[in-house]
Amino acid sequence: MLKLARILVVVVCCILICVLGTIYSFIRFKNPSNVSVVARWFGRLSPLFGLQVEHRFPKNTANIGRAIYIGNHQNNYDMVTISYMVLPRTVSVGKKSLIWIPFFGILYWVTGNVFLDRENRSKAHSTMSQLAERINKDDLSIWMFPEGTRSRGRGLLPFKTGAFYAAIAAGVPVVPVVCSTTHNKIDLNRWDNGKVICEMMEPIDTSGYSKENVRDLAVYCHDLMEKRIAELDEEIRQAQQDKESQHA
Q1: How far apart are CA 182 and CA 176, in angstroms?
Q2: Residue 93 — pLDDT band, cuts 50, 70, 90?
């Protein structure tokens, strides 16, 4: 019963956010800060899932400037966890098929996000080049999920290199954003689904990399994020154990 009630409430809230977000974004057509505004609206839905989400930003967040943000892509719950971490003047890159999702597709387009045609490699490569140009021309940052798909409990999947090519070409840092594991930890029939930690890590300088060793940059970022996710999972596990021992 609780699961059904949650689903109904969440669906209604998501449709409202999509409709209001679309109207808001049409008024400020493709303003690069639209994405962060709407992303935070979705992020505020986390209590409906019984989640307590902690968002951690570095002290120098305001000084990061233009960057490529990369996040781990786990499942549909990303919409109410890691999406809250999107900063102003940041747009995301998503697959072309998103446009066909009812309500959300038009919202994704009108907020100013970038569609990527993954079926066409030459077009995808061209999109990365265009992104690099836009970053500096329009004073933008880009949010990407370099795994390319949801991991669904398979751990942090290998990274595709598109985001890193764009960062090197634009001469901007890569900023990893990680979210603790949510796979198989959320039961919609349970009131309390525990804590989730989303953390923005320190920027990674890309000036020492080129197109020739872009794979090295991707592997370095992957290993850094994988290690931090494990640390966040352990922090949550330890805190839960301490909490249970106090009530024992």
Answers
A1: 18
A2: confident
Q: Is residue 19 part of a domain?
A: no
In the sheet where 195-200 sits, what is the strand order? 52-56, 195-200, 174-179, 68-71, 141-144, 90-95, 114-116
Report if residue 182 sits inside a domain.
yes
Range of the domain at 211: 50-93+118-247
Asked if residue 171 has pLDDT above 90, the reply is: yes
Confidence (pLDDT) at 118:
63
**pLDDT band for position 125 (50/70/90)?**
low
Rounded Cα distance between 110 and 35, Å, is: 9
Residue 45 lies in a domain: no
**Is residue 237 assigned to a domain?**
yes
Q: How many domains does the chain have?
A: 1
The span from the CA of 169 to the CA of 161, in Å, is 12
Taking residue 79's Cβ as centre, other Cβ atoms within 10 Å add up to: 18
Residue 98's pLDDT band, with cuts at 50, 70 and 90, is confident
- How large is the average pLDDT for residues 138-160? 92
Is 42's pLDDT higher than 70? yes
Per-residue pLDDT tens for 49-71? 999 999 999 998 888 999 999 99
